[in-house]
Amino acid sequence: MNEEVAGEHHRHLLDRVVFMSDGVFAIAMTLLVLDLRLPALAEPSAAALRDALVANISHFIAFVISFQVIGIFWMAHLRMFSLITVYTRGLAFLNLLFLMSIAILPFSQTLVGEYAG
Questions:
Q1: DSSP conformation letters of 63-109
Q2: Nearest to residue 78, comparing CAs of 15, 18, 3?
C-alpha cells in the first residue's frame, strides 16, 4: 500500500471513530432530558406547578451540569481528533473506554437528581 493510500485509509478509519463518537455524545445528551418529567398534580394550578417544579430543582440542575460536562468533553474530543493523524487499534480502544464514561452520564445525572441533598 503506497503512502497516499495508507494516509487515506487512516483518515477514513479516524473519521469512523469520530462519527461514532459524535453519535454517542449526541445520544447521551439527548438521554439527559428523559430525567425531566412533568410533575403529577392533584389539583392543577400555577402555584401547585411552581411548587412541584421547585421541589424537583435538583433534576434541572443535574441536567444543566451534565449537559455542560458532556459538551465540554465533546469539544475536547473534537480538538484532540483534529490533531490525530494515524489510526491505531489502541486509539480506538481508548476512545471506547472514554465513550463508556460519556454513556454512563445520563444514569449518573438521574442518580444525582434523585438523591442529591
A1: HHHHHHHHHHHHHHHHHHHHH-----HHHHHHHHHHHHHHHTHHHHH
A2: 18
d(CA 25, CA 28): 5
| CA atoms within 13 Å, Cβ hemisphere of 107 | 5
Query: Cα–Cα distance between 117 and 113 in angstroms, integer?
Result: 9
Question: How confident is the prediction along the chain (117 residues), in pLDDT tens digits per residue?
Answer: 566 666 687 788 999 999 999 999 999 999 999 988 888 888 888 998 899 889 888 889 999 999 999 999 999 999 999 999 888 999 999 999 999 999 999 999 988 888 875
Give the predicted TM-score (pTM) of the model: 0.84
